[in-house]
Amino acid sequence: MPSNTPRIGIVGARGAVGTEARSTLSQREFAADSIVCFGSARSEGTHVLYGSDSLTIQPMNSIANHELDYILCCADAQAAREVANSLHGDSTTIIDNSSAFRADPDVPLVIPEINADLLTPHTRLVANPNCSTIMMLRALDPIRRTYGIQRVSTTTYQAVSGAGRTGIEELHRLTRAYLNEQPAKSSVFPVSCAFNVFEHESAIDPETGFNGEELKMISETRKIWGLPDLSILPTCVRVPVERAHAQSVTVDLEHPACLTSIGEALRTHSIRVLEPGDPLTPHDAAGGDDVIVGRIRIDPDSQSRRVTLWICCDQIRKGAALNAIQIMECLIEQRHGSKKEHTPGVACAEEQNRKVLA
Ligand SMILES: NC(=O)c1ccc[n+]([C@@H]2O[C@H](COP(=O)([O-])OP(=O)(O)OC[C@H]3O[C@@H](n4cnc5c(N)ncnc54)[C@H](OP(=O)(O)O)[C@@H]3O)[C@@H](O)[C@H]2O)c1
Fold this sequence. Notes:
With 358 residues, the protein is of the alpha/beta class. 32% of the residues lie in helices and 21% in strands.
């Protein structure tokens, strides 16, 4: 049984999500016995910060030797499968941020505020949902519980950091080149992300025309809510924003709603709700823990059954690293009954962006 001051491994500790995992654990003053960082062969032996401590990136082939209680896997799907295959026995729990295990019916896909009940003391592998799915469902779940949802339609406005560190670097490089009227080629995205808007870069399914991100939003929403036939129509788009995604979401409800009770339902479930007229942008969410909702409107021609929302959320934090850490906290609580109050994230985009690039 893992200790309640666990040994934690972070795979991909230098990446966008891995960096956020380090800073979130450190900011929450997480009681860990040890933090061990791993990365690709490129970064073995280099150093990363954990609070004020400097940690050395360990080789991946040593991961089984560290007797870790939890591994926060913040690398791609192939690396995640390798990590899962390299561990034997049942002493380590993997919480994976990639898409490797999300569709596996035997692996819980968890947003703790919604379906933490899927976690048990015996859970050894948990999948963290896609970032756009996490922020949308966090905002919609209180509405679903109160009114029932028949249909979801959404357009995302996704930050370049959703593609990792290199997405941020590409936005900086191409923006400088554009402003200096210099030629520059895209390498992370199929077209220039500077001063541009384009459909999500994931592969298009030739049969349906949906891109991979849209298909993830559909299948993961259905799995998390246990509604395999729910109608969901996403359009996923990249915008030249460094950090934090925005989404416009419209839902058809089973029962009529009113603005006051929608706001109450959201606030009751710890969603930050802005007053009408208050501007909400990704900058307001960047670096913080909150899912923020603004511009709640009811379609006047829908008999109060169609509601539209504008949502912003730091997709590296609640959409990835924080959600994974909350899953780990739930498991620790189940296994040891220890619960700790945490310092909420501060909305300081500049500081957090510096950390991503550090
Ligand atoms: N960025 C987001 O907003 C977001 C949101 C939700 C989920 N995710 C998912 O989270 C995961 C990490 O994304 P990211 O944005 O942090 O990407 P990233 O910035 O590109 O970082 C990926 C990290 O994975 C490491 N890595 C690559 N191959 C590896 C291997 N074979 N063994 C060990 N480490 C390896 C890299 O290590 P080196 O630095 O050593 O090369 C790098 O640090 C991905 O699965 C992504 O889909 C990302």
